[in-house]
User: Which sequence fits this backbone?
């Protein structure tokens, strides 16, 4: 992780601890290079998760470090999830890291598990929200004092004005819900957790990148996710594995997260040539 507030507490005794690459854009390049090189030598492979709201100087430094190491053993993964969703996904991968999964499969599991994360927020304003389509009516209502909006950014964009009877489409499987409160107070999520048949509701501090991602600090971010390690492992293990044709790692899906290679396209068989007709 690139921020300490994205490293959620361990889920159980098997969950691997998170490693935080702090202040990458502020420390000397040689210091951060040594740190990442040490991690690669210690663990063999490193998967770095960061949100799409991570400051660009930090992202550029990550790519610079990976290039200088000249190694395919560092995977940079920026899923299309809000910051709290990225933190949840990172903890799921930390849970799976204790299982008998190869590095390529573990990294690929991040792309798979993203589909099972439902991430959203309750916002005090949608005036600067650009992650979810916002209509003119919602923009106008966001200027009314006291207005609140409930938004799901993933897996399917949704937006409703918080009011009695308002709801959002949720997961069709049992989950836990994690809530991170910012500069906004709301009890609406308690009812949503019941509608989504969540096992329970847990709280955590709001990631610093959340305000940038949602366009406002008046936010309560939430995320529904699978917490049971056996369920996570079964999901990953049930997917057919293949070998990356470029770096040789076992992967699931159509992309190797370490070297970014995709399976080579198979050229369609050429039609059988017509018999050449020659004059008698």
Assistant:
């Amino acid at each position: 992780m690139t921020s300490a507030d994205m490293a959620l507490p361990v889920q159980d005794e098997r969950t691997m601890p998170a490693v935080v690459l702090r202040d990458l854009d502020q420390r000397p390049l040689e210091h951060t290079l040594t740190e990442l090189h040490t991690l690669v030598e210690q663990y063999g492979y490193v998967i770095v998760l960061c949100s799409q709201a991570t400051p660009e100087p930090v992202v550029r430094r990550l790519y610079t470090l990976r290039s200088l190491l000249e190694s395919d053993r560092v995977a940079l993964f920026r899923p299309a999830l809000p910051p709290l969703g990225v933190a949840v996904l990172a903890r799921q991968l930390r849970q799976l890291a204790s299982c008998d999964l190869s590095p390529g499969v573990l990294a690929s599991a991040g792309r798979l598990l993203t589909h099972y994360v439902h991430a959203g927020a309750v916002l005090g304003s949608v005036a600067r929200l650009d992650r979810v389509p916002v209509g003119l009516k919602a923009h106008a209502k966001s200027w009314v004092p006291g207005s609140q909006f409930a938004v799901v950014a993933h897996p399917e964009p949704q937006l409703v004005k918080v009011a009695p009877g308002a709801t959002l489409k949720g997961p069709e499987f049992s989950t836990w819900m994690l809530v991170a409160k910012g500069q906004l107070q709301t009890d609406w999520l308690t009812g949503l957790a019941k509608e989504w048949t969540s096992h329970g509701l847990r709280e955590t501090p709001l990631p610093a990148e959340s305000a940038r991602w949602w366009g406002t600090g008046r936010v309560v971010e939430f995320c529904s996710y699978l917490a049971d390690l056996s369920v996570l492992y079964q999901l990953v293990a049930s997917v057919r594995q293949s070998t990356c044709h470029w770096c040789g790692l076992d992967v699931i899906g159509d992309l190797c997260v370490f070297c970014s290679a995709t399976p080579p396209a198979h050229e369609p068989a050429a039609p059988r040539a017509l018999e050449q007709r020659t004059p008698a």
